[in-house]
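User: I'm preparing a small set of examples for a lab meeting where we compare how different chains pack in three dimensions. I only have the primary sequence for this one, and I'd like the structure in token form so I can line it up with the others. Please keep the answer compact; I'll paste it straight into my notes.
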Amino acid sequence: MINLGETMDHIVDDIITKLSKHVEYSEVFLEQEKSTEISVLNDEVNYAKEEDVTGIGVRVLNNKKQGFAYTTNINRIDEVIKQAINNSKLNSPDEFVEIIDKPEQYKEVSGLYDSRIEDVTLQEAIQTCQNLVEMVKEKDCQPTSAEYEVAVGKTIIANSNGLFASEEQSSSGISVSLNAKENEGYSSAYAYDVNHTKDLDITRVVNESTDLAKNSRNGKATETRTTNVVLDYFAITSLLGTFFSALSSENTQRGRSYFKDKLGEQVASESFSLYDDATIPGANSSSKFDDEGTPSESTVLIKDGILESFIYDTYHANKDENDVKTTSNAKRSGFNSVPHVGFTNLKLDFKEVTNISDIMDGITVNSVMGAHTANPITGDFSVEARNAFEIKNGEIKNPIKKAMISGNIFDILKTASAVTKETRQMGATITPKIIAKNLRVIG
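Assistant: Understood. Below is the structure token output for the 443-residue chain.
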């Protein structure tokens, strides 16, 4: 457990007590994190860093005017309180801002803390990263960079309405970028693993990255055509970012969402459902409460292809023209920011599975470059395919030297199906590999 003990609890309570003398409503967000991070660049340790940071954010609400200030110096609390109050006086009233009421209870989410991570030393972290590098070399590949990071942290949220919530989480992650030599140069690949526990699958990271790089060597040109594209986990996470952002209430309210007026309509295949769920044990973005203290929940966004909900924090729920409540999707960039709406774990679920053996023509794509250039309103995109391979008569064939794929992001899930039942979490997205039909492949 993090050594915060009762001291930080008392500090938070003391801040709320002081604020209550000057403002109508107040909130304190405290974050402490101890982390160790190692980076290796071209076989040499690039940097080794240990940090222990405690940060406190203070939010106040007076006459519907919000003020905010933060610090990493606990001795500056009185100054920060004064600054938050002064900042509120400079802002205009906002009828939608709210400090939430105290929830009835919180439900614990398992698998979010591993005490073993507390004991990872700097030398052990360096050795883990160096071991990864050596394992890559044993596979006849050249690592260009590798990183290993572990962290333990605690979050406390308290407000003047009696809310007091705290949670401890741990995390670990490892990644590698590498090259495999070929006749005319190199083929590259990347892989990583992230977990709440110390038990990272380093062997999988090494095998997947080295196999992908070596198999990608000596690529050939592909034929320009409209065909099937199998999207691997990396590619899905990048490409569907625009689709997901259209499900944010902030974007619908600003008129920047393709789904703005489509609630209750068929927007995807009948075999497809999508959930935002912060209650999944051990998942990357799980927690027992969101970043304004609302108990976490699971929200059905799309069910059997029908658009059922957007995600909300309290502010955007209050602002919405419909009678809605927060979906526990308040997020912060850290102690130095106020809450905003954001996703937790996005779980993609498909009833249909199309095996590779059933695909007569197409390509498979490990990752894409340029997904950020997709049009967020129309969904049109054109991206570069990375580590791509031909699919012919149900078999994955030769690597593709260079290809672009284009289409419409909002059309992909109208006909998509899973390629495997196995799912993996990449960032916030929990997904199987999927097949996108009728995309344009440009060789």
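A couple of notes for your slides: The chain has two domains: 5-212, 219-443. The chain has a mean pLDDT of 95.

User: Perfect, thanks.
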